Structures are given as C-alpha cells and as structure tokens.
Amino acid sequence: GRPACECNTCYGGPDCSLFLSSCSANADGGDPLFLEPFWKQHAESSAVVVAGWHRMSYSFSDQTTLSQELESLLRKLHSQVGNAITDDKYILFGAGSTQLLNAAVHALSHLNSSFPASAVASIPYYAGDPARWKNATNTTGDIIEFVTAPNNPNGQLNEAILHGPNVKTIHDRAYYWPHFTGIPSPADEDLTIFTISKLTGHAGSRFGWAFIRNEEVYQRMNTFLQLNTMGVSRDTQLRAMKLLKVIIEDGGREIFEFGYKTMTKRWDRLRKTLSMSNRFSLQKVAPENCTYFQKVREPTPAYAWVKCEREEDKNCIEILNAAKILGRGGSVFHDDDRYARLSLIRSDDDFDMLISRLESLVSKEDGAK
Ligand code: PMP
C-alpha cells in the first residue's frame, strides 16, 4: 500500500480508496473529466508526439495544411452530428471559446456606431465579465445579446429574445452536443461559438472555434485574435486535430454514446436521490427530438440547477456547503440565491461523492418522502 500522504488530498487508506470524511464533495467548476475514461480507452490513437524541431514558426507565417486540415475536420464533425450548418461561413480558432467570446464582443461593438454596445443575457446566465452584462430587458442603443444554448447553469435551450437592426447576437453553443442535449436542428446563426472543452473534455488545451456569416465581423474578430495572441498555439491545434480524428472515425458514435450514457446514468442517480426530498428540487428541461440519435430524448444537462424550496432556506449554497458539498450560488449567475449550481461533468469519484453527501443530507430531512 501507499502511505496516505501519496494519495490525492481527499483519499487515504492502504490503496487510497478511502474518502476522508472531512473532505467536501466537489461539484464546483465545469472541468469535464467525465470523458476521461473514453480517452483512456483510446490512449494510443489519441497520443501526440512532437519532435523538438517540429512546427516552430508562428502559425500565421506557417500556412501549412495543419489549420486547413483542422478546419475541414471541424466542418465534417458538424455535418456528422448535425448541430451546425457550416457552409458559406468563415471559421476562426481561439484559445478556448473564452477568447472568441471576447473577440466577438470587440467585433460587434462600435460596428455601426461610435458608442459602445451594451451586452445583455437572460437570467440566469454564464458570464466571464459580469460588470459589462445586464438583464436582457430594458436596454436601449446598440445591443449585443449572448444566447447560451443549452444554457449554463440551467440547461435550457435558450433562444434570442431581442431582435432588430441594432441587435447583434452571439450564440454560445459550448454544450450543443449529444452528451448534454437532443439536437433538434443544426445551428445556422450569424455568429456561433463552440469549444473542445465540453466536446472532448480537453478544457486545458484551450481550443474553440467560431462560425461567422459576415465578412466584416470575421475580419474584425481576426484582427482582435492577431493582436491578442497572434493566433492559436500550434501545439494545441495539433492536439485538437488528433482528438478530432479519433472521434470522427466512426461518425462520433462511440464518444457521444459514451457521453450520453454517462450523463443519463448520473441524472438517474441524482433524480432518484432527490426524489426522496421535499427540500431540494431540480430544474425541468423539456425532452427534445435528437436528429443525431434519431429519437426523442430527455436532456442530460452538464449542471443541476437546484432550488431550495423551504422559505427559510434563502441561501441554498450555504446549506449545501454545510453538508460538505461545493457548488456555485445562484447570484454568480445573477439569479436568486435560493438556487445553486452543481456540476455533473466532473470525474466519477467526484460524482459518487456528491451523491453520497446528498443522500445523507436528504436522509436527515424532517418528513422526507
Ligand atoms: N461558454 C460557456 C457557456 C461555458 O460554460 C464555458 C466554460 N464553462 C465557456 C464558454 C468557456 O469555455 P472554454 O473557454 O474552455 O472554451
């Protein structure tokens, strides 16, 4: 056996399998390690080895086939999955979708006016820069609306609520993959952003891409990306290409079936655990037709959006924290603190621990069902 000090922080015992009771279950943060077992099964075919002398140039001065090949792999994947129409659209790579979201805001503000545009989104919303964002009602002037579909934190397939000549929309499609939602129809929007983080789980590689209809918007985003980081790391592009090749080989069947199955099992366990509770409830997301799996299916969102139902439980995350569960309070998403977000896409160990902590919390409820 290994000494306790060599185990991960929250484990002990001779083979590090004993969860320490002092530790909290981690359901904070969207680290998508639920896909790690898939990549363990494809360790060899997904490996990348790069010799020291290889691909040293700046990516813009090295117009080799790498970015072109990556681009055609992405277009192929979207046509296999049916989640985006990519014909007649420009494509740009970014350091995660985060950089592309920033590039898009840059490109769309001051487009037709000397005043900066206001950025808005419907509550609850995910935001990198909360100070700049507002609720999407009651705004005048040039407006950029962020539409996150499926939404973080609640998994709803949001649609744009603002329309008109002074409105520009950025569609954040980070979670528009069969792991998390039915794919009712392909996205065909002016500006749509995807990320490898929630597709393959490689959040640390920092790779995202955007489809852009309008040439001027594309040029302005491209200028931002060149000034900001001079393009996306070649090493990252190489790794993304290798990963995409593995998933494209069978039309995405294996990874999406794995992701969908894993998320379905997790939602079943979570629903069962909370079905005993009068105190905590889960969001309801309508079933969607999935053109990829060719059936109507229950959505399996990346996050649980838990509501504390008791009048006195005004701060839901405090109650969960006291029961040794880490997550994020509703106010992080500009909503009521009666809500809290729990991440369901972390590792199997994190999820098992979350269920076990929830079970013991629910079992202590007065009048639990
Ligand atoms: N958009 C949404 C809705 C997200 O939830 C996240 C990450 N949690 C991101 C964008 C950023 O992802 P990345 O920069 O890793 O692509």
TrEMBL record:
Q: Which UniProt keywords apply?
A: Aminotransferase, Membrane, Pyridoxal phosphate, Transferase, Transmembrane, Transmembrane helix
**What is the required cofactor set for this protein?**
pyridoxal 5'-phosphate
Q: Name one GO molecular function term.
A: transaminase activity
The answer, when asked if Transmembrane helix is one of the entry's keywords, is: yes
Task: State the family named in the UniProt similarity comment for this chain.
Answer: Belongs to the alliinase family.
Q: What is this protein called?
A: Uncharacterized protein
Q: Which residues of the full protein are shown?
A: 83 to 451 of 453
Q: Which organism is it from?
A: Eucalyptus globulus (Tasmanian blue gum)
The residues covered by the Alliinase C-terminal domain are: 25-362
Q: Which domain of life is it from?
A: Eukaryota
